[in-house]
Amino acid sequence: MHINNTSTSVTFTPFVDFEGVSTATIEVWHKPTKTMVTTTSACVKSYSFITMNLPVLTPINAVAKNTDELLFRVYDGDILMWEVLGYWITGTTNIYNTWKQFTTTAPGTPNWKTL
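and the corresponding structure tokens:
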């Protein structure tokens, strides 16, 4: 999972059932500085995915550097419902922006090596 200061929500696949959980507490920890932001957010279920609004990320934005580790935790009361390690990515959260865009689909032969 990748976020930055323009991120407003996260979507994830939980490892436990969120049935009956309408709101939960979401924490975002900046691991290098132990800076934490938290909020209570609605849990919106779509198929097997849960979407939640993020807390205001200004305190993390003030200390985070590109590719710093973040820890996301979601609690229903005192029960940990979801936890995952993510990264602070400056500039963009589009993880597909570095994928090669091919301009041709012409067939070619691989350069096989004999061992």
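(Above: one complete record from the training split.) The beta strands are 2-3, 9-12, 23-30, 35-42, 44-46, 49-53, 68-76, 79-88.
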